[in-house]
Amino acid sequence: MTDILDQAWQPSPDAFANAVGNELVLLQIKRGTYYGMDPLASRIWKGMNEGQSVRQICSNIAREYDAPLAQVEEDTRRFLEDLRTNEIIIAA
């Protein structure tokens, strides 16, 4: 099975994103649910939408915050699993 970090992702057709200050609010239209994303989650979302690989996004975050890459990857993995489970992202 392919690691979620090695896949390309895109927003679901049923998802809508809107920036509010430094945060991003996502609306899953079909489910009628919304999610507030902190600046770091917003950065992951923006990077994916700009075509960056998830692993590159993780590497950039780890370097910028002087954080262990393994921890950044694990946190990102959980975040992406949540977005996928809630039908906010789909495989590109």
TrEMBL record:
Which Pfam families does this one have? PqqD
The protein's name: PqqD family protein
InterPro entries assigned = PQQD (IPR008792), PqqD_sf (IPR041881)
